[in-house]
Amino acid sequence: MAARGGIPLLLAQMRALAHKSAQKALQNVGAKGLENNIFKEAFEQIGRKLTLKAIGKAVPIASAVTGALIDTAQMKKVLEYADIFYQKRFIVEKESRISNLIGE
């Protein structure tokens, strides 16, 4: 137990041999030990906070990726429309450009 860092638990067991009240307290603690409960709760709280921080940092990244994909799709539609529009405009204005070159 001392090698695992359970020195207070080891001392409580030594007292339990001498005192019945300490033995009852040791039985109430059970197999987990006071240290395990305290550390477990502390690590769980740290884990929750780190998880929330990681999620908080991931939200802007996910939003940026989603926005980039939507912007790319919209830009592709705009470019296709502009290409078709200017091709039709070129065909419609072709006669006026020819007449301006000839001098009519």
Q: Can you tell me about this structure?
A:
It holds the Pfam family EcsC. There is one protein chain. The protein is an all-alpha fold and 104 residues long. Helices cover 87% and strands 0% of the residues. The radius of gyration is 38 Å and the shape is rod-shaped. It has helices spanning 7-18, 20-29, 34-92, 94-102. The mean pLDDT is 76. It has a domain at 32-102.
SSE arrangement:
Elements (H helix, E strand, L loop, with lengths): L6 H12 L1 H10 L4 H59 L1 H9 L2
Helix pairs in contact: 1-2
Protein name: EcsC family protein
Organism: Anaerostipes hominis (ex Liu et al. 2021)
InterPro entries: EcsC (IPR024787)
Q: Indicate the low-confidence ranges by residue numbers.
A: none
Number of helices: 4
- CA-based gyration radius: 38 Å
The run of helices and strands is HHHH
Q: What is the number of strand segments?
A: 0
The helix-and-strand class reads: mainly alpha
From the N-terminal CA to the C-terminal CA, the straight-line distance is 106 Å
Shape: rod-shaped
The helix fraction, in percent, is: over 70%
Task: Summarize the model shown.
By secondary structure, the chain is mainly alpha-helical.
Short key terms for the protein model shown above:
104 residues; mainly alpha; 4 helices; 87% helix
